[in-house]
Write the structure tokens for this entry.
Amino acid sequence: MAQLLGPTRAGLLAELAKPASTSQLAARHFLSPATVSYHLGVLHRAGLVARARSGRSVLYRRTPEGSRLARSR
């Protein structure tokens, strides 16, 4: 999966077994929120993650396609 998506996007996709916000993912992966947001945008446009508002936060989760790809590691 890392060869297809790149290591950062693959790591973020793998992490999204449970919904998480950009800031949560940034802290876990030692990346800036802007960097995480950029990569999540790419994954979202590819149909691998979905986003939903939860109060003041936006939570990202894997789509079924994203989960299939993550399992294929």
